[in-house]
Automatic annotation (TrEMBL):
Parts of the chain that traverse the membrane: 20-40, 61-90, 115-142, 181-207, 227-246
Entry superkingdom: Bacteria
Pfam families: BPD_transp_1 (PF00528)
Cell compartment(s), UniProt: Cell membrane
Keyword presence, DNA repair: no
Similarity annotation: Belongs to the binding-protein-dependent transport system permease family.
GO cellular component, one term: plasma membrane
Lineage: Bacteria, Pseudomonadati, Pseudomonadota, Gammaproteobacteria, Oceanospirillales
Keywords (A to Z) from UniProt: Membrane, Transmembrane, Transmembrane helix, Transport
Membrane topology: Multi-pass membrane protein
Protein name per Swiss-Prot or TrEMBL: ABC transporter permease
GO biological process: glycine betaine transport; transmembrane transport
Major localization listed first in the record, in broad terms: membrane
Keyword Transport: yes
Length: 253
């Protein structure tokens, strides 16, 4: 009987909604756990039977989730603007001489540990959200720059020549031909950057930024595994939800 209901329910979904089913499932689980974590006290008590508290209560999980998403969103938006913009600039004739420099700077940002960036940023920017945004920005640039360069360089020169033969200006060529053709590769780089930074953003809790890293850091300090699992669970669900959205967008492209 239950299988029959599942079949009917699946058939009732429109094709568009069915395609977005995975992101909706992950997002629903994320909201469910963020709002109902307190109801799982029995399960977390099994992890930490000797702890006085097994549910992190210093801040609400919904508030921490919102802060986490905001930090990643701001850093990712700036990284996309800088990364895509700089890659476009160095693939134009006037900026091609700066191509090695842009690639090297993006690589340095990726290889420089975010913890080191935080240590250097805190004296200048103070404790709080801004240092982790800077760290995520630097850490997330390389995939975006690299994929944008790959996508633009991979366009068939004959396509460009055909567009010029139709009378397109350089701006029209970029907007109407190059960027649409390179979009799947660029989007794949943005996907990598954002999903990696969702996990990396937890380090912000070490410099006073309030996000889903708070229960993880508190769990490490207090030796409370339940806190660590709660923070890690929500970060993992957030990453899965965002990654499934990007996967859906790439399939549509």
């Amino acid at each position: 009987m239950s299988r029959q209901w599942l079949t009917v329910g699946s058939a009732a979904l429109t094709p568009g909604l069915r395609h977005w089913l995975a992101p909706l499932v992950w997002l629903s689980l994320l909201v469910l756990f963020a709002t109902g974590m307190a109801h799982l006290e029995g399960a977390f008590r099994w992890l930490e039977p000797d702890s006085r508290e097994v549910i992190y209560r210093r801040a609400g999980f919904i508030a921490l989730l919102g802060q986490h998403a905001m930090v990643v969103g701001i850093a990712s938006l700036v990284a996309v603007v800088l990364g895509v913009g700089s890659a476009i600039a160095v693939t134009r004739p006037v900026g091609r001489d700066f191509l090695p420099l842009v690639s090297q700077l993006a690589s340095i940002g990726q290889t420089f540990p975010p913890v080191a960036v935080l240590a250097l940023a805190v004296p200048a920017l103070g404790f709080g959200t801004l240092p982790i945004i800077v760290a995520l920005l630097l850490y997330g640039l390389l995939p975006i720059v690299r994929n944008t360069l790959t996508g633009l360089d991979g366009i068939d020169p004959d396509v460009r020549e055909a567009a010029r033969g139709m009378g397109m200006t350089r701006g029209q060529l970029l907007r109407q031909v190059e960027l649409p053709l390179a979009a799947p590769v660029i989007l794949a780089g943005i996907r990598t950057s954002v999903t990696v930074n969702i996990a990396t953003a937890a380090l912000g809790a070490t410099v006073g930024a309030s996000n889903l890293g708070d229960p993880i850091i508190a769990g490490i300090i207090n030796g409370n595994t339940a806190y660590i699992v709660q923070g890690a669970l929500l970060i993992g669900l957030l990453a899965l939800a965002v990654d499934s959205v990007f996967e859906r967008l790439l399939r549509r492209g």
